[in-house]
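Lecture notes, unit on binding sites. The following record was shown on slide 14. It pairs a sequence with adenosine-5'-triphosphate.
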Amino acid sequence: MIRPVLEVIDLCKSFPVRSPFGRLTGEVKAVNNVSFSIGRGKVYGLAGESGSGKSTIARMIMGLTPPTSGDILLDGEDIGSTGGSPAHRRKVQMVFQNPGSSLNPRRSVSQSITVPLHANGLPRADRARRVTELLDMVQLPASYAERYPHELSGGQKQRVAIARALAVAPKLLVLDEPTSALDVSVQAKVIDLLVDLGRQLDLTFLFISHDLSLMRNFAEKVGVLYLGSLVETGRTSVVFENPRHDYTRLLLASVPVVSAEEEAMRPRIPLIDGEIPTAEQLLALRKAGGGEA
Ligand SMILES: Nc1ncnc2c1ncn2[C@@H]1O[C@H](COP(=O)(O)OP(=O)(O)OP(=O)(O)O)[C@@H](O)[C@H]1O
Ligand SMILES: [Mg+2]
């Protein structure tokens, strides 16, 4: 059996909740028993509303925050103690939501891209050639190497962030809302670029977004997070055509429809009567002992 590039097994993360005076008053289960895996060269889409735990999962995969319990396997190896190490960083890289704040304004494009090359020990003489190669991959002219972030559009900044992530030739790219700060027309172009790069470089993607319409064309499989739990997961077409969870239906029903083809993919099962409880209501319910734990 070929091992998946990423396996997430029973992952949990709790954060302490403190009163304004710093007293420990409880904990929030930001991620609750989440399991999924991504095969080589595949795209897995993780969806869910704000606060559902998407970024917390991304941060644990990157080794930026330790899990409370559970395992994360990269190429079959538990990242446990290696999380965040240079060897780990060569396998997995991340692209963040806001390229404006993830790029250092005082560094030129070339300087930003060479930071990981430095760390990787690429000889100085080869760096300029590699920067040009990386800019070419993200379809930016070589002359952009000398530009600074304020001289770039949002979409161009995100291309630079992608080039920087690709510098160490990672296997897995974690994309945390990579296009939500961009105009709709630019979003589509960045997604097209990611699809191309994935094919060319045999990349595996974890694509995080609250926008299900973006997942349709990009992700083979999706998982839907609700209050830290994966309430639904499976092939994108199956989940979209036959959503099992009320929350998934609600997410899909709020996706704007732009074509007849997409209209055909809208869930046909009517939404249940009444309202889906908000995160706060559900937490209050759980605290009071109601609802499933
Ligand atoms: N460092 C932290 N300390 C305490 N609570 C945290 C911390 N990081 C995240 N949380 C809480 O964990 C939950 C999940 O947050 P997370 O950022 O993972 O959500 P998200 O799905 O990425 O949301 P968004 O779509 O807004 O980015 C939230 O309730 C959040 O307040
Ligand atoms: Mg987030």
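Take-home: Residues 54-55, 176 surround magnesium ion (ligand 2) (CB under 6 Å).
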